[in-house]
Batch of 2 targets.
Target 1
Amino acid sequence: MKIGYQGIAGSYSEAASIQYQERKQAEIKNLDMLGYNSFVELVQDVASQKLDAAMMPVENSTTGLIDRTMDLYRGQSVLATAEVYQPVQHILWGVPGGRIEDLEEVYSHPEALSQCRNFFAAHPWIQPIAYTDTAQSAKLVADEQNPKLAALASPRCGDLYQLIPLQKEIQSEETNTTRFFLMESFVEPGEGIGKYLQEMRGEHPKRTRLMLYVETPHKPGALAKLLNTFNLYDCNLEGLDARPIADQPFAYGFFIEVDISHVGIDMEIFWKTLAYASNRMQLIGCFEPMNDGKIGGEAYATA
Ligand SMILES: O=C(O)C(=O)C[C@]1(C(=O)O)C=C[C@@H](O)C=C1
């Protein structure tokens, strides 16, 4: 199996891929991991089946939905088939002789920089600089050997790139965790999504979580009508995020996550009822939930 991930060795996306590999040891014998520089390319290569899958960050416990990846799935032939919770504990890595007082620039992935807002607020002389991923930021600092530069990256990057810790656990929230989706290629089957989901229930009964992208008519009560349908079928709503629709200023679509374990009717009827209440609906994920949404404990133990 060939899995793509953002960054180079030491990135959190690589760590999430390793965690997934450990979980699936019995099923996946050979796993090839390929580092990428861009989420756009990752999604393209999954959709075109150059890759079997991509490990993509989708939500962070400190900063919420990772829209730079979630927005890429809209209209693409991809589907999340598994999720991974990866603890994200950043270290401020510098070079020998480096001191926080002398730092001028700190490099990292933009998501990682946002997760450390409190640190930058407390050290206003340091400029946060966005870079492709956390591990390449660490490598850049190691290559430059300039004590005015540092990187926010994972604990593993210290050994990998011979760096010195200037401060540990630098993220604003101690339990900072990023949730990843394993994205695979998915073309809507001719017989429709409802039938697909009904078959899925038989074959993979533990895949009780759906991630949907839905656009509702722009009229009073439209979203309420859709949400009522979930209520009608006893679906617990696990997430709801609004995202702007391209080229339709101030119109929004919704990423909706639901637990379908208590749906008592055929999934074809379920899907048709939802489709009736929406203008556009895409299945973004169908997977077995991990950690029951709880962060810490088991997730940290298995990191
Ligand atoms: O830069 C990395 O190490 C990544 O894997 C990317 C990424 C992200 O995009 O959210 C993954 C996990 C952390 O939240 C920080 C960065």
Note: The two ends are 22 Å apart (CA to CA).
Target 2
Amino acid sequence: MTLEEGTVQISELFDIRITNDSGRACFANRDLKKNTDVLCLKKCLGASTCYEFRKEVCSQCFRYEGGRRMKVRLDNKYPKGAGLWFCTENCRDQFLRQEHVDHLTDAYEILLVNWEAQAKKRVGRVDNASNTSASTEEIESLWQDIRDNWITRIDCMKPTKRASQLPIINEDEYVCARFVIHCLFTLETSHASSLQMTAFRNLQSNESSKIMKFPVLLDLQKHVFQTLYILLPSFLRPKFDIPTYRHILGSEYGNSFGIWQNEESSDSREYLGYWVLPEASFFNHSCAPNLIKHRAGNQMVFTLNSDVLKDQELCIDYKDILHLKVDERRRILKENWFFSCECSRCKLETQIN
Ligand SMILES: C[S@@+](CC[C@H](N)C(=O)[O-])C[C@H]1O[C@@H](n2cnc3c(N)ncnc32)[C@H](O)[C@@H]1O
């Protein structure tokens, strides 16, 4: 992934530069004091709640009340409530104040209607993954087949016939489809030159490493694509093409943040879902991070935990692994994020060992 230095200025406090061994990274462009918020993000590209928590997490602020169902829904215009649940009327109203939001809720509702209509067909069904391995050639060949054969066939069908071509999707695919809908909505309603869009276009994709490790994702990607190709309302269609779809998912694999329950300690909190915050995705991992990330409702704040000098790299902890030994930390990062950690602490501890 290339990025001309200086083309994305995420914050006045740091610059993005290219490093020798860890891609692009963020560097303080002045001395900064402990407790400085170097980045505060109020809008994500896309988010999705885990299926099991879909009724228990506020769709606006991600509040979770220990398993209690959220009380507030959309009004009667959406018989299924578009799969949205809110902790308060205030949160619902804030959600509804987004420009063009009807197009987002329409898409969620259509997906949910289809999801529920497929319920009987899912009973007793075992997902037999057709892919047990995947190479970059196989990934490309899947997309070529979809482009040259499947899309061509669907485009020739009458709209009423297309529904018969919908794949039966599972919970993970439903959650992924909602995430992609949210991203497409953000892409469609944002200015191409906005900071978030520029950052999104420049995100590193982890498509091939992730799919090679979990080949089942190829089926998931195919099913979600086919579902959205048939169901998406017209407002979201202009941004929905194969390269954009692959970039959305490839970026999610390499850059998404977990949406965690806030009140609990890190070993007992629930993983509620995930979201992609493009402007925060140029922070590298360090096993001695100088930034703490904190979610406050639907805002994400990155705060310095120590004084930092000009030109020092700004890093976060990706995996809550700071208490582990170097080999274990490196193994976890390799398995989950597909990189060998080159942070200063790992380098030092590797030399000592
Ligand atoms: C969220 S992105 C961070 C920005 C990334 N460096 C880029 O150029 O887009 C995560 C990726 O950055 C790289 N990375 C992050 N922390 C690293 C580290 N400590 N050592 C080596 N590579 C790292 C890995 O390629 C990882 O998949």
Note: Strands lie at 14-18, 24-28, 37-41, 46-49, 257-260, 271-276, 284-285, 291-296, 299-304, 313-316.
